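> forwarded from #structure-qc
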């Protein structure tokens, strides 16, 4: 815990104990509000990045990987994620339907697929896994499977 937080918590405890013994209701209220504000500040600092970070950090990492390799990037079933456009700094093919589309997925194209849609992707394409994350995965060389 950081020093300002400790100071505020200790001041809150002192004000509360003083307010209770002297029967000062306004001081007690102010001390409780200050204590709750500091507590919510720490909770937001620790919990909020954890909740938000899962998918977004993976998308940013995959876009940077494609940019560094100089590869074309496609995203299947992710919707329009503007972080991909921003961090890849190139044209991205947002593919909504899981159909074989030879124009969008050339050899060497990096493809981002949501993990819950991997079965559909697996049924249509042969691929090479580059990285698998918690919410999204990055694939390369997605070649359409031929029906026998």
């Amino acid at each position: 815990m950081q020093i300002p937080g400790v100071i505020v918590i200790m001041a809150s405890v002192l004000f509360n104990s003083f307010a209770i013994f002297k029967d000062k209701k306004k001081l007690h209220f102010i001390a409780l509000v200050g204590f709750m504000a500091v507590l919510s500040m720490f909770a937001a600092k620790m919990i909020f990045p954890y909740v938000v970070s899962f998918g977004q950090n993976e998308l940013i990492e995959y876009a940077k990987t494609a940019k560094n390799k100089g590869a074309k990037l496609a995203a299947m079933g992710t919707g329009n994620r503007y972080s991909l456009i921003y961090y890849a700094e190139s044209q991205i093919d947002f593919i909504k339907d899981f159909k074989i589309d030879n124009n969008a997925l050339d050899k060497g194209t990096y493809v981002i697929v949501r993990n819950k849609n991997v079965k559909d992707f697996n049924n249509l394409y042969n691929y090479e896994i580059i990285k698998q994350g918690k919410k999204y995965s990055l694939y390369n060389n997605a070649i359409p499977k031929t029906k026998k």
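QC bot note: The two ends are 63 Å apart (CA to CA). The chain is about 55% helix and 20% strand.
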